Amino acid sequence: MTTLASGTDTLTRDALTVLQPGFEGTTAPDWLLRRLGEGLASVGLFGRNITSPGQLAALTAQLRAEREDVLVAIDEEGGDVTRLEVRDGSSFPGNHALGAVDDVVLTREVAAELGRRLAACGVNLDWAPSADVNSNPDNPVIGVRSFGADTDLAARHTAAYVTGLQSAGVAACTKHFPGHGDTAVDSHHALPRIDVDAEVLAERDLKPFRAAIAAGSKAVMSAHILVPALDAERPATLSRRILLDLLRGELGFDGLIVTDGMEMRAIADAYGIERGSVLAIAAGADAICVGGGLADEDTVRRLRDALVAAVRSGELPEERLADAARRVRDLADWTARAAAGRTDADAGDPEVGLRAARRALSVTGAEGYTPLTAAPYVAAFTPVANIAVGHETPWGVAAELARLVPGTETGGFTGPDAGREALAAAGSRRVVAVVRDEHRHPWMTQALDALLAARPDTVVVEMGVPRAEPRGALYVATHGAARVCGRAAAEVIAGV
User: Fold this and answer.
1) DSSP calls for 364-414
2) Which one, of 230, 300, 217, lies nearest residue 256 by Cα?
3) Is beta strand 377-381 parallel, antiparallel or unpaired with respect to 409-413?
4) Phi/psi zone of residue 57: left (φ > 0), alpha (ψ -120 to 50 degrees), beta?
5) Is the pLDDT of residue 387 over 70?
6) Cα gap 383→115, rounded to integer Å
7) How many Cβ atoms sit within 10 Å of the Cβ of residue 305?
8) How confident is the model at residue 123, as a pLDDT?
9) C-beta separation of 186 from 386 below 8 A
10) 3-class SS at 73?
11) What does the pLDDT read at residue 296?
12) Mean pLDDT, the chain, integer
């Protein structure tokens, strides 16, 4: 392990220790390596940092050559939110598909295999799973990232996921506390507000977090949401009542509390990232996640200096910052022990994700359906991707269907004329219409209306939350848009 720079005082080291920054590029920049030598203890990775498992392993080795106990974190949920396979689509279905199967053994196996792949690449902290109960069907940012709208189902699968992930030596970071499921606003863009009483929160939203804590989740991520029943003034990330009184006190969590990305507008617009980070640590958070949008040395310097200045002014107790830094180091120690105890004897189960995706399918109309005999036209009705998912990751069934039925063609459509445009593009070919959360997008419903009126033999594939009524000659709900979900749907459509 690199010796910390002799000129770096304890306060400055602690301020660096609590940061989880990102960076640009597929190799670590000099400034990041230098900060690791000065006390930085964590690094966050995003899709922009990853091109292949081999490259990722080389990158994490580069980080550990500078500081061997560094926490390397990633936002890898599987399903729609993938960083390991950001350019190809995930080999694992997401939470909603696992909830649809409702087999906790399968969920544990999927999480364990995902953990094994992360550990093999040198990643030891996963900002997952999402424990949010998707109680609001109009939620624009959770949706298929949730195990479902049923509290008990979400709780048992959250616990299984935590157990599976950590069995591979990768620390779970259960999110988004105290629950982001009942929101109609994306906290990347604005501050969501949840207006229900404390009893509803306790029985609905907090149960999966209680289950995660009981399962031993090493970390919990806070949500940038306002919950007046718990704290009428401060969002959860900045609230002592929520982080200390509720999460630490009532729920008994003793692990690492990580913030959601501090550059998200729910915090950045109202407080700024420097002020927000000081308030978060003061409220009980232990690690500041930043880097999804701001990924440069200046951001690290600004946050470090803001924390040091807050301690020196008396606004942030030095003991609170020191306690936060200690918790970061404690988690780093756990991951080091877990890595030392890992063995390559367990080769894992590389097909578990595909098997799970196949089991997650809900199919309507199969009895009268004749599989394709000629190449179809796949019309993808494409909504704007939320920031958590990103626009880089491909989705749909076209690529997998083309592999099974050569000659398959595809096009993307959006807006009020999407149905008419898709019909014109398809010509005489059989249409496979792919939607994502039709119930949230009236223009998608209109597009399907137009398609089915003209072409009742259209196959419909829903790759979001399947709340709209099944329709079409064949209707397939995948409960997520991972690559393996597309493959499973394509197999049904092609009759293989």
Assistant:
1) ESGGG----SS--EEEEE-PPPPTTT-SSS--SSHHHHHHHSTT-EEEEE-
2) 217
3) parallel
4) alpha
5) no
6) 30
7) 13
8) 98
9) yes
10) strand
11) 94
12) 94
> Where would I find the beta strands (DSSP E) of 2-102?
19-20, 42-45, 71-74
Residue corresponding to tokens 């079409």: 472
Choose, from 188, 224, 441, 479, the residue flagged as catalytic.
188
C-alpha span between 283 and 245 (Å, rounded): 10
For residues 429, 437, 190, 278, the Cα torsion angle rounded to the nearest 10 degrees is -110
182 is catalytic: no
For 176, counting Cβ atoms within 10 Å of its Cβ (0-12 exposed, 13-18 middle, 19+ buried), the class is buried
Counting every residue, how long is the chain? 496
Residue 333 annotated to the active site: no
d(CA 94, CA 340): 29
Angle at 473 between CA 471 and CA 476, to 5 degrees: 65
Instruction: Please count the other Cβ atoms lying within 10 Å of the Cβ belonging to residue 13.
Output: 17
Per-residue pLDDT reduced to its tens digit, 228-265: 999 999 999 999 999 999 999 999 999 999 999 999 88
**pLDDT 10s digits, 139-171:** 888 999 999 999 999 999 999 999 999 999 999
